[in-house]
Amino acid sequence: MTAEHSTPENNDAVAIDEMPVSVGETLRQSREQAGLTQEAVAQQLCMPLGRIQALEADDFARLSSRTFVRGYLRAYSKLLEADPETLLAIYQAQVGDQEERAAVLSGADNGAGNRPFWRPAAVVVALIVAGWLVSSWFFGNRASTDVPASSVVPPSESVAYSDSVANAPLSTEPEILEGDERVGDASREDAESESAEVATPSAEVLAATRVVEQVETPTLDQLGLRFSDECWLEVTDAQGDVLFTDLVQPGRELALEGRAPFQVKMGNAQAVSVELNGEPVELNIPANVRLRTVTVGES
Amino acid sequence: MLKHLRGAFSNDLSIDLGTANTLIYVRGKGIVLNEPSVVAIRHHKGQKVVEAVGKEAKRMLGRTPGNITAIRPLKDGVIADFQVTEKMLQHFIRKVHEANWFQPSPRVLVSVPCLSTEVEKRAIRESAMGAGAREVRLIEEPMAAAIGAGLKVDEANGSMVVDIGGGTTEIAVISLNGVVYSDSVRIGGDRFDEAIVNYVRRNYGSVIGDATAERIKQEIGCAFAGSEVREIDVRGRNLAEGVPRSFTLNSDEILEALQEPLAGIVQSVKSALEQSPPELASDIAESGVVLTGGGALLRDIDRLLSNETGLPFIVADDPLTCVARGGGMALEMMDKRNIDLLSS
Questions:
Q1: List of chain B residues whose C-beta atoms are within 8 Å of the C-beta of residue A122
Q2: pLDDT under 50 in chain A at which residues?
Q3: pTM (predicted TM-score)
């Protein structure tokens, strides 16, 4: 102990002067100045001699975790009466500043602090969405009872409608546009408040039928039939609905509306001439055939 | 439900509920609170009102008028006054979440002494719940200390930790994320203070307070003869004359005063070494024992233990906060790797 007591300031000076030098070098120099051997240090610190040698050789891999290395350095510099912080600073610089923590939590250290950030945000967003849904349900509900006609149309209706736009005659176009807009509005509102549909079924049905009436009339195909002789006739539309079944007297003209293609079953095929949407349709019926079923308006 | 909603606005906490100091570690932020575990209570018309908590309350210790009592709700590492502990925790948890609009409701990991009984654990769990936690987990103190000190607890390699706290000293041998051997002795910083008070009364015929004793211990206390001798001037009430007197103490006297509690710690460390399995004991002899807790700051305590056992003893970095930091790291480890580090 007397040896270390003699040169405490000297040791400090050495440690500071030789900052860039390695830990092991600093320790060795201080130890030699204090006149101690490695064995003496090992004995005083109760450490195996190998550990002291490893410390002085900067062979930190041979020592266990960094906690221990720092502890050894602190004990060693205390024994040499040097400032442990200087030595630890050199050590830190030497091994780089990777976190000891990373070693403890090996391989699983990223995103640790992230969780607390998104959780409050998620709750706030959820609250806003919930509030918006509730308010839109509330106001949507009120609006639908006030003006039922413009409120709701089931989405399928608008699809069927747009399908038929292509087939419709030119003259009905303005009306179609108007209807289109309305359907568009309605379906938008529909998406916004599903609950409105459930809440006011009667209003919805009313509105739906009214809109359908307005919309459907121009979209249907016109089937015109002219008879030169008495003929039995059955006309079925695309959905399989029977539009007409009867015996028709000669000279009579029939105008049917429905969705193409039509199934036309004729008892006296030679006596019938057919028009679809104002245009004559060629039936190509052989001369000796009387009973015949034809499909009109097939795309 | 509401607790969970509030929980989204709270941080996970690791609390080192110590006899002397309470530390709180917040995930991603580090140690955010380090205050003495002291509560000052005012008795007002038969009702108890919390007057101050933490540092402020500690200044009141031994200096209070009749209607205020400054108490330390934990004794020997366990809860001595349940309600006051709850109030104190509540105060600390709120303080940590000061910036929040909502009342906090965090997940909390609390460290407990390793030999605490079911009743003591339950008291800690319930006081944390009462303080507003939505989930309470417990971890054994030496395990948290080892993680906080940076030991590789998950390796098949024995490490020994001696955590000298305010009320207890915890000794544990840890390997593969588990405690192989653990012991807890009710000797700690408080016993050191007590020993100093008794020594001064016996040798100087004067009475000093606990706060003065603590200051003496921190400034000149040492555990091993041979280092430089320091002195301190203190004032205490002379028993014979009844008036305050000033006198000087030196570190050799304090060393003498601390002999008894230090011998207790040395004894339990030795018996822990005796009882650890030979493979682990050889690992420990190779790398050494880590000291944590406030007691590790007592000058030369590592040299005392090294000399007594012949093993290297090292003091961890920042020994006071090891347990709280370790608890925080344990929370992260448990979330990521699903390791069970908790005490049953």
A1: 8
A2: 1-18, 98-114, 148-166, 168-184, 186, 189, 191-200, 216
A3: 0.65
Rounded distance between C-alpha atoms, residue B172 and residue B163, angstroms: 9
Residue A199 amino acid letter: A
Percent with pLDDT over 90 in chain B: 58
User: Is the Cβ pair A75, B311 closer than 8 Å?
Assistant: no
**Which of A41, A46, A66 has the highest number of chain B CBs within 10 A, making it the mutation to test binding with B?**
A46
Closest Cα in chain B, distance from residue A86 (Å): 15
- The Cα–Cα gap between A216 and A236 comes to 18
Q: Which two tokens stand for residue A111?
A: 């995103």
A46 with B311: Cβ contact below 8 A: yes
| A67 with B150: Cβ contact below 8 A | yes
Interface predicted TM-score (ipTM) of this complex, two decimals: 0.80
Instruction: Using DSSP bridges, classify how beta strands B107-112 and B13-17 pair: parallel, antiparallel or unpaired.
Output: parallel
Choose among B312, B301, B344, B191: nearest CA to B257. Answer: B191
- φ/ψ (deg, to 5) at A81: 55, 35
Residues of B with CB under 8 A from a CB of A: 5, 8-9, 11-12, 27-29, 147, 149-153, 157, 226, 286-288, 290, 302, 306-307, 309-317, 329, 332-333, 336-337
* Residue type at position B195: A
> Which residue in the set A46, A70, A100 is minimally distant from B312, CB to CB?
A46
pLDDT (tens digit per residue) in B202-216 = 999 999 998 899 999
DSSP secondary structure code for residue B92 in this structure: H
Averaged pLDDT, B263-287: 92
For chain B, where are the E strands, in sequence order? 13-17, 21-26, 30-36, 39-44, 47-53, 68-71, 74-75, 78-79, 107-112, 135-140, 159-164, 169-175, 178-185, 206-207, 231-238, 244-250, 289-292, 313-315
Q: What is the largest CA-CA distance in chain B?
A: 65
Give pLDDT, residue A105: 45
Which chain B residues have a beta carbon less than 8 Å from that of A103? 150, 152
Residue B298 has pLDDT above 90, yes or no: yes
Q: Report the pLDDT value the prediction gives residue A210, as an integer from 0 to 100.
A: 56
Q: C-alpha angle A7/A8/A12, rounded to 5°?
A: 115
Rounded mean pLDDT, B74-89 = 89
Residues B295, B188 contacting (CB under 8 angstroms): yes
Question: What's residue A110's pLDDT?
Answer: 40
For the cut 50, the answer to whether the pLDDT of residue B138 exceeds it is yes
